[in-house]
Amino acid sequence: MRLPYAPNTPPTGDDAADTAGIYARIAARRNPRPLIPLDLALLHSPPVADGWNSFLGAIRTRTVVDSGILELAVCRVAVLNGAVYEWDSHAPLALKAGIKPEELQAARTLPCTAEGDLAQLDSSPLSSRQRAVLRYTDQMTRTIKVEDEVFAQLQTAGFNHREIVELTTGIAGYNCVSRVLVALDVGENNHREMKSVDELVAALK
């Protein structure tokens, strides 16, 4: 990483009690895993790490949108932003959540649809719901402004208001994650290639 990682345990000092509480809240969400490199990057600013943990924790544990759909969107964000750490972390979660290998491969390889390049998307193995999410993710990530037609596809695909808000905040949140990961080179992944779908499938067997 471009900075040294923060310590795994809270430092002592004038605000030690507050900082210890922040460490404890992050550790509770990660349990039974230890703190991850992203946590140890953010913990240089404990208040920021605390807010981050609350926001991303809500997206990951308190939403109703289908977890496979959400992970597919996160993986697409990782591909568009070149966030190796994010792809390698979330692509296995997408497979575990029911995304088929060929669908994950489509998210990995399809050209960006933000400017309307839809030929390969239309012939891909993605379902109509997945295509709607991929187009929404592409526009949110690349052009920021989402066309009315692209937004309407989410509604046509059957997503309700809560699911659309959760999907939108999930895509936005993981765009934020990817930008931090890449800017600071968290996990020292920027020079690496993303794991292939075949590698990921084999690792899950």
UniProtKB/TrEMBL annotation:
GO terms for molecular function: peroxiredoxin activity. SUPFAM superfamilies: AhpD-like (SSF69118). It holds the Pfam family CMD. Signal peptide: none annotated. Residues 46-111 form the Carboxymuconolactone decarboxylase-like domain. This is Carboxymuconolactone decarboxylase.
